[in-house]
Design goal:
The complex is a heterodimer of chains A (about 350) and B (about 375). With about 350 residues, chain A is mainly α. Chain A is globular. The longest helix of chain A is centred in the N-terminal third of the chain and has 28 residues. Chain A has 14 helices and no strands. Chain A starts with a helix and ends in an 18-residue tail after the last helix. Helix content of chain A is about 70%, strand content about 0%. Chain B has twelve helices and four strands. Chain B is mostly helical. In chain B, about 70% of the residues lie in helices and about 5% in strands. The radius of gyration of chain B is 22 Å and the shape is globular. The chains are: A mainly alpha (about 350), B mainly alpha (about 375). The interface between A and B is large, with 44 and 45 residues.
């Protein structure tokens, strides 16, 4: 049991948040639960796969949206049938449970393959290579019309495995599934980074050359980590198609890729919790600022433009002022508030990912 | 030891064999195997045009299309590569500079000719193309300088943060383009009238568009200009020294900040110039910023970051693969409208990454 006041505070907030999340259907409106909270959980899982790579592997991956979409498109192609409307895609009509397993495994394998290709590059090179993956994935589903076509695949959430059940009408059910998966992903990451593999990963984040001399297979570790993050992204992708019922090339376009990066950066690239904090913040801004006075302000001051200009400005501000996001701001706030009392507080262990020169 | 060496040698031969096999198979397909598509059905040999032997003219035209695309790719990607090579800044707003450059030229040309939405080629003289291009290049050069001085000067060495900052800038620019340029509609700049004709190329036996040849020529001119600048002038010498060792160069009393600023202005201007050429060749439209960011990335990842020769080689390979795979891939049966060309772009990228992660002409820093 820790006596560190900061860890205690965080744990209290975390448990409080969890209790609130479990009880949420009791006192949040249906719209809030479905549109805000469920979406935040799903986007948070995708962002967590990005933050996991960044915080513990020192790799900023922009391919997570594409991997997420891969799982979504795979499941969409496999479960939908031609009956009941003209669905696009291959309309294989396979068993949903089989499709779920195949989508998760397939996406993970794709992640291992992509990871192996990029594993010898680090830092900014890795970012560029994964960005090309992402854009190529977008053009692939856009151009290869047999698997998607421009308008994408619809009606996917009618076909779910029996243990998932009816999520079209029972949205609370989907919320709890998303919550369960999010908790699983979070706990899995926390446990994983304490295993020998996780420690080696952090070692090669900081000192790749030294780890290599010690006999660690650096590219192999990076590849496996990328495969793991692909699996998490695949989970998010499956939840995404269950949530929105459809998937289209636009869901994995450059805009979505950048949006996910913004979510991760708003939350903070150094701590896993940040993924969900960032997702909630982003979705709240997205829902409540979009048509508010802020957007009108742009016209008033004669800049013009839409909500995206504001998102861009917010993102710019965060990167300039607090590059480690809200979680970084929280760490700093804690340090400042503790400075006077002299009790110290915890040393900030988080290393800004990828910032090492 | 000799056994181990032989093993290593064998392993080194694998990539060459694989690449040779792929290139050989593609050439065989294009030159001999491909068949023109029939009215109905088709098989794996069916392509848009027949093989090079059957239909030499289409082959020659595809080749030239690839080369002209490579010219445009080089104009844009060399700027990206120059900025990265010297400053280690991955300018994610490079595609946005391309887009805005094209739109500025469009607006200026509209003002100059006073014509409507589409301008007839005969109404545009050379100056009415050159001047909009100059305006676009200058404006984006200044914008690039401002971005570098305001956002990238104080955080040198923080590569990731700089990339994130330029991503934020590209998000803002993309939205502002929608709001301010031609209602976000696709817009094209018109080539001067004298380029709007075909010229007979006796060696290849085809007629080909003068405007497209002009693009190729511009690519070559930019390449030559950059080479002369980098290898024959004092500024170029300083830039090359900076690429190799930034700290040592500045320790020798060179004003490295000035060099950075110059390189950023030139790099951004090249993106804008590419945008003007691209808008003249086709059109600029919202969303192309991402496409041209991808193009620049692919070219420099293939060729090697920060290398002029690499940018040229990358453009050439990418341009040819793109152009040929669009035309010479099987288009059989019910897959009539599917385009697989992006797959080949990826194959090219994957081969380079797997066997030469630093790029064809790149060096590890």
């Amino acid at each position: 049991v820790t006596r560190d006041p900061k860890a205690l505070t965080e744990r209290t907030i975390g448990i409080g948040g969890l209790v609130l999340a479990i009880a949420a259907p009791a006192f949040f409106s249906e719209y809030w639960l479905d549109v805000i909270l469920t979406q935040a959980l799903i986007v948070g899982i995708a962002a967590a796969s990005l933050v996991f790579l960044a915080a513990y592997g020192g790799m900023i991956s922009l391919a997570q949206t594409m991997l997420m979409g891969t799982a979504g498109f795979m499941i969409g192609n496999m479960v939908t049938t031609r009956a009941g409307g003209e669905s696009k895609g291959l309309t294989l009509g396979w068993d949903p449970t089989l499709a779920l397993v195949l989508a998760l495994v397939g996406t993970t394998l794709l992640g291992v393959f992509f990871g192996a290709l990029a594993a010898r590059s680090t830092g900014i090179y890795f970012l560029m290579i994964t960005l090309t993956y992402s854009v190529i994935g977008y053009y692939f589903v856009g151009q290869v019309t047999v698997v998607s076509g421009f308008s994408g695949i619809a009606g996917i959430n009618q076909y779910t495995p029996p243990f998932v059940g009816d999520i079209v009408n029972d949205r609370n059910r989907l919320y709890y599934i998303a919550l369960g998966v999010a908790i699983l992903v979070y706990v899995a990451i926390r446990l994983l980074v304490r295993t020998p593999f996780g420690l080696a990963l952090q070692g090669l984040r900081d000192e790749p050359v030294r780890m290599s001399s010690l006999g660690y297979a650096v590219p192999l570790h990076r590849t496996l980590a990328f495969g793991l993050s692909a699996f998490m992204a695949a989970l998010a992708g499956v939840l995404l198609v269950w949530w929105q019922g459809q998937i289209a090339p636009g869901d994995i376009g450059l805009q979505s890729t950048i949006d996910l990066l913004i979510v991760a950066v708003i939350g903070g690239l150094t701590r896993i919790e940040g993924a969900w904090v960032g997702a909630l913040a982003f979705i709240l801004i997205n829902n409540y600022v979009r048509d508010s006075w802020l957007t009108d302000l742009l016209d008033t001051v004669r800049i013009g433009g839409s909500f995206n200009t504001i998102i861009g400005l917010v993102f710019l501000l965060i990167v300039i002022v607090s590059p480690d996001g809200l979680m970084g701001a929280w760490d700093r706030l804690w340090r400042i508030s503790r400075r006077g009392t002299g009790s110290g507080g915890s040393a900030v262990t988080a290393i800004p990912a990828g910032e090492k020169v | 030891v000799s056994q181990r060496l032989a093993q290593l040698d064998a392993r080194r031969r694998v990539p060459r064999l694989l690449v040779a096999l792929l290139v050989g198979a593609s050439l065989l397909y294009i030159v001999v195997l491909a068949e023109p598509s029939p009215e109905f059905g088709g098989n794996w040999r069916t392509t848009t045009f027949g093989s090079a032997i059957d239909d030499w003219q289409s082959f020659a035209r595809t080749l030239l299309n690839g080369l002209t695309l490579a010219g445009l790719l080089f104009i844009v990607a060399s700027g990206f590569s120059l900025i990265f090579g010297l400053m280690r800044v991955v300018n994610m707003a490079h595609g946005s500079f391309y887009l805005v450059g094209g739109y500025i030229a469009y607006e200026v040309q509209q003002k100059m000719t006073g014509a409507g939405f589409t301008i007839d080629g005969t109404e545009v003289n050379t100056w009415e193309w050159v001047f909009p291009a100059l305006v676009a290049v200058t404006v984006i050069g200044v914008v690039g300088l401002a971005v570098q001085q305001v956002f990238l000067r104080w955080n040198q060495g923080q590569e990731l943060r700089q990339a994130l900052i330029t991503i934020a800038i590209s998000v803002i620019i993309a939205d502002q383009v929608l709001a301010h340029f031609n209602d976000g509609l696709a817009s094209s700049v018109t080539w001067p009238g004298w380029t709007n004709r075909l010229v007979a190329l006796p060696l290849l036996g085809i007629d080909y568009s003068v405007a497209r040849l002009l693009v190729l020529l511009m690519g070559l001119a930019v390449g030559l200009g950059l080479w002369l600048w980098l290898y024959r002038t004092r500024t170029g010498m300083v830039i090359r020294a900076g690429v190799d060792d930034r700290q040592m160069t500045s320790a020798l009393g060179v004003n490295i900040q000035l060099t950075f600023a110059i390189a950023f202005v030139v790099g951004s201007s090249l993106a804008a110039f590419g945008g003007v050429v691209g808008a003249s060749q086709g059109a600029v439209a919202p969303g192309q910023d991402g496409q041209w960011l991808l193009n620049s990335l692919v070219v420099v990842i293939i060729g090697g970051l920060g290398s002029l020769l690499g940018a040229a080689a990358g453009s050439l390979l990418y341009g040819l693969v793109f152009s040929f795979s669009a035309v010479y891939l099987p288009t059989a049966g019910n897959n009539c409208c599917t385009q697989y060309s992006i797959v080949f772009t990826f194959v090219l990228l994957a081969l380079v990454l797997a066997f030469r992660p630093q790029g064809l002409f790149g060096r590890f820093s």
